[in-house]
Amino acid sequence: MNKSYCAAAFNHIYSDSNSRYKLCCHAFAHTSEVSMYNSNEHSPFEYFLSPEMENIRDRMLEGQPIGGCEKCYDIEASGYRSPRQYRYNRHFENSEYPTEPCEVELKLRIFGNHCNLSCYMCIPYNSTTRAKELKEIGMYDQYSLGVDYEVLLSKDKFQNIEDDVIKNIHLVKTIHFTGGEPFLLPRHYSFLERIPDEHKEHIFVTYDTNGTVLEYKGKSVFELLRKFKRTSFCLSCDHYGDKLAFIRHPIDVKSFEDNIRTLQQVSKRDPKFKISELRATISILNVEDLYEIREYYKKEFNIKIFFNNVVNSPRSLNVKNHPRKEQLIEKYSGDPSMNSVLKNLSKPSNPKEWNDAMDYLEKLSNHRGINFRDYWTDYQKVELISLANI
Ligand code: SF4
């Protein structure tokens, strides 16, 4: 396949929490060729079947570069596999690549951004609890990227989108829910309930979930999802024990682990349900322990955890700034599952950003009443002059 073709333009509809339609969650907004479309004013299929999207699909088939996809092109130019390759095109390596819109996957952040956790590295427009905590420590403006605290479409606008999707439901193969925390979003349940049963049985439902909630209004989520073809759960999980509790504050670690066991038991009984993976977000607070984390979840749950996702924003939390990065590069080098981590570790460090991260973690610690240095005992500010020479 040529150097710009991406199946995402043929089978994926994505909108972010800022209401922007983009080719996928990796696509840049500032160079996007579809920036005129947003979920406040346009329905998903109006955007997806628009002349602008047709033009992008035609140019992709000719191998021309597309505005917004620079991240993938840059990753590939550095010799690594991009989301275009490992996420969207991989499924078609042994079959025909789509050349027309088909078998659509919906990933729409239109159901709200309510979340019960304040993960220390989360983009605040993906979690109301995170946004609230950042406001309380006086750092919301720095991290908010200009997005409002609580993002909820008006009832009428949401209704329009729901109507459009139901009208085109025969084109939909997969519905992907992401946060906020999807299992806490009432509109996600009402949307699922509107889908006629004869279509439910052909649709895959997938979730990015924090794994803290498996019930809604006294009903198990499995009961609500049983009529769909299959449901898979990708659980966010960045560490274990006390370190997990700090990173994903205020998670109840025991209840999270109980939920993993429940999901495993349910999927054993009913193959319609499965945990697709545990997915860690890699940052300065877990980059030292990735092998230990992998071992823990293998031993306790026999589940694989993936380390592809590395925090880039806020930049101060990126692993490139870790003062002992040379040792970490040595620890992980030669391991293909650590490619993304190694790629980030090899970027130039910025000691000022590391010190900003320490300031931020101290503020969070004071606010939460938990000192992060109880668990990361040697994380201190660095001398700017000495580290700048590394
Ligand atoms: S090329 Fe990359 S950025 Fe563009 S749509 Fe595909 S995965 Fe997204």
Task: Describe it.
The longest helix has 18 residues, at 351-368. The two termini are 41 Å apart. Helix content is 39%, strand content 13%. It has an eight-stranded mixed beta sheet. β1 and β2 form a beta hairpin. With 390 residues, it is an alpha/beta fold. The chain is globular and about 60 Å long. It has 18 helices and ten strands.
Brief account:
The protein is α/β, with parallel strands linked by helices and 390 residues long. The chain contains 18 helices and 10 strands. Iron/sulfur cluster binds next to α4 and α5.
Distance between the termini: 41 Å
Radius of gyration over alpha carbons?
Answer: 21 Å
Bound molecules: iron/sulfur cluster
Number of strands: 10
Descriptive labels:
alpha/beta; 8-stranded mixed beta sheet; two-stranded antiparallel sheet; 10 strands; binds iron/sulfur cluster
Strands, helices and their partners?
Elements: H1 8-11, E1 12-15, E2 21-22, H2 44-48, H3 51-61, H4 70-77, H5 83-89, E3 104-108, H6 128-136, H7 140-143, H8 155-167, E4 172-177, H9 186-194, H10 197-200, E5 204-209, E6 215-216, E7 219-220, H11 221-225, E8 230-236, H12 241-247, H13 253-269, E9 273-282, H14 290-301, E10 305-310, H15 325-332, H16 339-345, H17 351-368, H18 384-388
Parallel strand pairs: 1-3, 3-4, 4-5, 5-8, 8-9, 9-10
Antiparallel strand pairs: 1-2, 6-7
The protein binds iron/sulfur cluster.
